[in-house]
Amino acid sequence: MVIYLNLVMLYVFAVLIVMEESVVKRVDPQGRVSIPIEWRKGWKSDKVVMRRLGDRIELTPIEPVSPSSLFDSIEIGDEVDFTDPHSLRKALLESRRR
Q1: Given its phi and psi angles, is residue 6 left (phi above 0), alpha (psi -120 to 50 degrees) or beta?
Q2: Residue 78 to residues 72, 73, 86, 91, Cα–Cα distance (Å)
Q3: Each residue's pLDDT tens digit, 29-68
Q4: 3-class SS at 71?
């Protein structure tokens, strides 16, 4: 009886730990689901990446990238016309080959 009771208590304890981070939400007609504010407090952005994993959906917050971290990351020649997307694309492809 004591062993059985301990196993039941262990099971209940394990379920409580797992359920601590679980929430049941209703999907509205537009397909929206609200994410609890407590879960979003540490996020630095309001954008997420959604991945479909079979019958599950994974949401991962996107961390913002500082524009200054991109400086000098790609070298492009002076002859590139930045208003022409074809010229810019060609220059980017050439820079990858180097």
Answers
A1: alpha
A2: 14, 16, 15, 10
A3: 999 999 999 989 988 888 999 999 999 999 899 888 777 7
A4: coil
| Beta-sheet strands, E only, within 1-98 | 48-53, 56-61
Locus of tokens 């080959």 = 97
The answer to whether the beta carbons of residues 39 and 59 sit under 8 Å apart is no
Residue 69 host element (H or E): none
CA distance linking residue 65 with residue 43, whole number of Å: 13
Distances (CA, A) of 71 to 3, 17, 76: 64, 45, 12
- Statement: the pTM of the whole predicted model exceeds 0.70: no
Q: Which residues have CB under 8 Å from 75's CB, separation 6+?
A: 95
Residue 74 gets which letter from DSSP? S
